[in-house]
C-alpha cells in the first residue's frame, strides 16, 4: 500500500473495510488490544457503518430507465432531447402535434411550418435545464454571443424598465436554419422572441395549446414572440419591443 | 438489435440503480441526479465499443462521477470545490484529534437516518463521493481510487476524514 497506511487510524478504517491482508489484520488487532483509543475508533467506525445501512436506498425511477432505453434505441423511437423528463416530453409532443394540426388548417405554407417550429422551440426550452444558452440581462453581452454562431445579428432591445427584463438568448433551429431567439421575462413567465429571414411571413396572432404567438415583419426580418402570458401582456410586449430604440 | 445496444443492455443497465444512487448523493437532488444519469448513460453508450469488459460497475460509476462533476459545474456551481483546497483545509483543521470530543459508538449507531443523511450531504464533495462509493456502493479501495482518479492513500485519508466528520456531527447533542 502507500505511505498513508502507516497511520494507525487509517489502518483501523482499512481493517473495518476488510482491506487488510490476514497478517496485517492480525498485527492491527494486537495494537487495538493494547491501545484503547484505537479500539474505541474501531467501535465508532463499525457503529457508523451500521448506521449507514439504515439509509433508505435510492432506486432509479422507472421513467428514467425507460427514457434511457428509448434514447439508445433499445425500445420505441429515440427522444429528441436528452434533458427532457418523460412527462415533459410527452406533453411537449402532444402540444406540438396539436399545434401542427392547427397551424396547417389556419395558415398553410412555410410560415405555418416556421410557426410550429418557433412554438416547439419555446416549449422545448422551458423543459430544458435552462431556457437559454447564454444567460445575461445585458444586451451588450447577449448580442455578441450570437456572433460566430449564426450569420445574422439579432435585434436586441432593453425593456427592463417596462417590466420585461432580458434574461438570455439561445439558438433555435427552424427546419435546418439556425436562428436567434431572445428570452425575456415577465413576472413568472418567459417570452421567446425568434427572428427569422426567408421563412415566410408570420400571422399577426395565433393561440395554440395555451401559448400565444404574435408575429410581425420589419426590415425583411420576421419576428415571432411566443409566451404563455396573457394576450394583452404579449401584445404590450410586442408594442414596446417594436418601439424600443435599436442598439448599435 | 445492434451490438452496441446489446452490450449497453448487458454492461450498463444492470448498474442503473447504483448509478442513480451515486448521482443523487453527488447532486443532492433527485431531478439533477436523473439528468446526470441520463447524460452519463449516453456517454457510456457512445463509449461502449472501447470498454474492455473489466469491472463494468466501476466503469459505469466512473462515468457517472465524471458526468456529475461536469454537469454540476455547468449548471449548479462553477466553483465546485477543488480537490487541493479540501485537502489543505483538512490538514489545517487537525481533524485527527481522537480526544474527548469523540462520541460514544452507541450514540453514533443510534443516530436516525435523516440526521445521518443531512450530515453526509454536508460533506465536501470529494469526501462525500469517497464515503458513498465505499459505504453505499460497497466498492473496494482500489476501485474507488480508479473511479475518483486519486492514489489509494488519498482514498484512505478522505474516507477517514469523511467518517470523522460524521462521527463528530452525530455525536453532538440533539436539540
Give an overview of the whole structure.
- The complex is a heterodimer of chains A (248) and B (175).
- Chain A is an alpha+beta fold.
- Chain A has two domains: 3-52, no CATH class; 82-243, Phosphorylase Kinase, domain 1 (2-Layer Sandwich).
- Helix content of chain A is 44%, strand content 19%.
- Chain A has a seven-stranded antiparallel beta sheet, with helices on both faces.
- The longest helix of chain A is centred in the middle third of the chain and has 21 residues, at 86-106.
- Chain A starts with 7 loop residues before the first helix and ends in a 5-residue tail after the last helix.
- In chain A, 35% of the residues are buried.
- Mean pLDDT of chain A is 79; it is low at 77-108.
- By secondary structure, chain B is mostly helical.
- Chain B folds into two domains: 3-75, Rna Polymerase Sigma Factor, Chain: A; 83-171, Winged helix-like DNA-binding domain superfamily/Winged helix DNA-binding domain (Arc Repressor Mutant, subunit A, Orthogonal Bundle), CATH 1.10.10.10.
- The mean pLDDT of chain B is 86.
- Chains A and B meet through helix 1, helix 3 and helix 4 of A and helix 1, helix 2, helix 3, helix 6 and helix 7 of B.
Helix-strand blueprint:
The complex is a heterodimer of chains A (248) and B (175).
Chain A: H1 8-16, H2 22-34, H3 36-52, H4 62-71, H5 86-106, H6 110-127, E1 134-135, H7 139-146, E2 166-174, E3 177-186, E4 189-196, E5 205-208, E6 211-218, E7 221-227, H8 231-243
Antiparallel strand pairs in A: 1-2, 2-3, 3-4, 4-7, 5-6, 6-7
Chain B: H1 3-11, H2 16-27, H3 30-46, H4 56-75, H5 83-92, H6 105-110, H7 113-121, H8 125-136, H9 141-148, H10 152-171
Total strand segments of chain A: 7
- Backbone shape of chain A: elongated
Helix content of chain B: over 70%
Count of helices of chain B?
10
CATH superfamily of the largest domain in chain A: MucB/RseB, C-terminal domain
Average pLDDT reading of chain B = 86
The CATH architecture name of the largest domain in chain A reads 2-Layer Sandwich
End-to-end C-alpha gap of chain A: 65 Å
State the distance separating the first and last CA atoms of chain B: 58 Å
Q: Write the CATH homologous superfamily of the largest domain in chain B.
A: Winged helix-like DNA-binding domain superfamily/Winged helix DNA-binding domain
% residues in beta strands of chain A = 15-25%
Amino acid at each position: 500500500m502507500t505511505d498513508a497506511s502507516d497511520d494507525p487510524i487509517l489502518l483501523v478504517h482499512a481493517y473495518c473495510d476488510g482491506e487488510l491482508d490476514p497478517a496485517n489484520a492480525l498485527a492491527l488487532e494486537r495494537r487495538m488490544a493494547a491501545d484503547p483509543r484505537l479500539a474505541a475508533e474501531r467501535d465508532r467506525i463499525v457503529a457508523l457503518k451500521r448506521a449507514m445501512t439504515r439509509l433508505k436506498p435510492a432506486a432509479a425511477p422507472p421513467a428514467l430507465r425507460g427514457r434511457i432505453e428509448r434514447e439508445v434505441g433499445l425500445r420505441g423511437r429515440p427522444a429528441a432531447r436528452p434533458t427532457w423528463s418523460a412527462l415533459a416530453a410527452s406533453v411537449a409532443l402532444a402540444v406540438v402535434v396539436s399545434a401542427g394540426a392547427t397551424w396547417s388548417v389556419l395558415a398553410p405554407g412555410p410560415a405555418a411550418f416556421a410557426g410550429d417550429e418557433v412554438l416547439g422551440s419555446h416549449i422545448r426550452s422551458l423543459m430544458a435545464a435552462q431556457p437559454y444558452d447564454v444567460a445575461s440581462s445585458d444586451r451588450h453581452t447577449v448580442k455578441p454571443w450570437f456572433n460566430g454562431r449564426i450569420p445574422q445579428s439579432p435585434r436586441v432591445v432593453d425593456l427592463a424598465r417596462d417590466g420585461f427584463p432580458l434574461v438570455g438568448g439561445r439558438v433555435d433551429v427552424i427546419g435546418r436554419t439556425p436562428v436567434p431567439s431572445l428570452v425575456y421575462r415577465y413576472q413568472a413567465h418567459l417570452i421567446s422572441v425568434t427572428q427569422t429571414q426567408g421563412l415566410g411571413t408570420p400571422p399577426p396572432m395565433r393561440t395554440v395549446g395555451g401559448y400565444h404567438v404574435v408575429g410581425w415583419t420589419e426590415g425583411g426580418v420576421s419576428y415571432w414572440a411566443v409566451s404563455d402570458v396573457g394576450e394583452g401582456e404579449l401584445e404590450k410586449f410586442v408594442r414596446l419591443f417594436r418601439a424600443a430604440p435599436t442598439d448599435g | 438489435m445492434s451490438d452496441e445496444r446489446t452490450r449497453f443492455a448487458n454492461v450498463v443497465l444492470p448498474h442503473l440503480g447504483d448509478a442513480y444512487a451515486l448521482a443523487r448523493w453527488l447532486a443532492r437532488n433527485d431531478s439533477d441526479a436523473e439528468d446526470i444519469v441520463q447524460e452519463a448513460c449516453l456517454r457510456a453508450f457512445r463509449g461502449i465499443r472501447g470498454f474492455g469488459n473489466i469491472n463494468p460497475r466501476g466503469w459505469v460509476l466512473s462515468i457517472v462521477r465524471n458526468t456529475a462533476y461536469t454537469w454540476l459545474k455547468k449548471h449548479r456551481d462553477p466553483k465546485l470545490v477543488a480537490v487541493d483546497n479540501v485537502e489543505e483545509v483538512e490538514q489545517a483543521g487537525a481533524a485527527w484529534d481522537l480526544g474527548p470530543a469523540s462520541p460514544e459508538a452507541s450514540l453514533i449507531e443510534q443516530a436516525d437516518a435523516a440526521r445521518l443523511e443531512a450530515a453526509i450531504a454536508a460533506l465536501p464533495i470529494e469526501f462525500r463521493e469517497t464515503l458513498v462509493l465505499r459505504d453505499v456502493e460497497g466498492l473496494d479501495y482500489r476501485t474507488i481510487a480508479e473511479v475518483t482518479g486519486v492514489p489509494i492513500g488519498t482514498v484512505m485519508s478522505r474516507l477517514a476524514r469523511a467518517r470523522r466528520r460524521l462521527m463528530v456531527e452525530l455525536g453532538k447533542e440533539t436539540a
